[in-house]
Amino acid sequence: MYQYVIKKDNQHSQSIFLTESEVAIIIKNWLRLTYINWGWIDDFNKIITKYVESCVYILIDPFRKHHVKYFKKLKVFKGHLDQINNVQFSPNGKFLVSCSWDKTIRMWDIASSKEIQRFEGHTSYVTSAQFSSDNSKILSCSRDQTIRLWDVTSGQQKHLFQGHSNIVTGIQFSSNGKKILSWSWDKTIRIWDVETGKELHKVRLAVPFITEAQFLSDDLSVILCSSDKTIRIWDIISGQIVQKLDNLLGVVTRSRFSIDCSKILLWSEDNTIRIFNVNTSNEVQIFKGHLKAVTAVQFSPDCKTVVSSSEDNTIRIWDVTSGQETQKLAGQSTLIRGLQFSPDGNTFISWPCEKKIQLWG
To answer: Where are the WD-type repeats located (predicted)?
Structure first.
């Protein structure tokens, strides 16, 4: 809470108290109005506004814990021949990996915006792809019911993982890089050995659809969310579901876990986004503002910010603590299918239904 003194005249003044989020909203709206007004000196105004914006942040920064980050489009990556299904940053933040209905996985250099490697071998569209922690390998999964491991340098396939009987929708490396987690429309979650390609563990769930799964920090348990509004924790060694949280929300469209798995983002058919505490099943925050169905949501790495997209053709940035919208990127030309923050949280990517990837920062 900050105190501001408004001086009316030489004898009278008034104190007002504003929260950090209220100060941020005032600054944001003032800057937005400044951009809109004085169109006849637009170029000059942009220079002055940028200078004032930086000065305001410098003045406020000593009293704040973090900046209010404002994003603009920086780059566009083009090359895929069909709809993009998933995009991920490399752990070092220098590269992107994308996968598409065109059956390819592509690696991009962020600095040059150029495609630097292509991985081909899947016989149907690729649903997800991810870098290994050392940036040397890429893991992918597909409608062809397989998981494949690729060498980044050569572009060659290293391993083929087979066993799922339906579309494989998601994959993840364990923290030590020795195991792979996968989930599928066949209603199973499986653990694989990276070196041998063998299936190590499997659990079958009586659920319509697994929306998200993630290794816990010890790599011995998996937390997962399903379309029956339930979070489950699966103990890999015993093969048992050891914890279950029910009835988180009405109709869950999709979900995203925070990095430490302590929180989960859920978005549903009522156009809202909600954060739940995984341990207690309590709702801790709700974000309202989208006018149509939400299509994608993502936590920033520090869990202080959420980015979302919607059928209302906007991307919105939210402050997790206050629940307030801090920025709206309106006028998106088509539906945004996915969002992902960079490892440092300073940029994020979006991929619309236009065979391209957009970088914001």
So the answer is: 77-118, 119-160, 161-202, 210-244, 287-328, 329-361
Whether this prediction's pTM lies above 0.85 is answered by no
**Boundary residue ending a domain (13, 35, 63):** 63
CA 28, CA 35: separation in Å to the nearest integer?
11
User: pLDDT tens track of the chain, all 361 residues?
Assistant: 544 444 445 555 555 555 666 666 655 555 454 444 444 444 445 444 444 444 444 344 444 444 578 999 999 999 999 999 999 999 999 999 999 999 999 999 999 999 999 999 999 999 999 999 999 999 999 999 999 999 999 999 999 999 999 999 999 999 999 999 999 999 999 999 999 999 999 999 988 889 889 999 889 999 988 888 788 899 999 999 988 877 665 555 577 888 888 898 888 778 999 998 888 878 899 999 999 999 999 999 999 999 999 999 999 999 999 999 999 999 888 899 999 999 999 999 999 988 999 999 9
Angle between helices 20-36 and 42-60 (to 10 degrees): 170
Q: How many domains does the chain have?
A: 2
Domain of residue 17 covers: 2-63
Which of 44, 63, 82 lies at the terminal end of a domain, its last residue?
Answer: 63
- Exposure class string for 164-173: b at 16+ Cβ within 10 A, else e: beebbbbbbb
The answer to whether the CB of 300 falls within 8 A of the CB of 345 is: yes
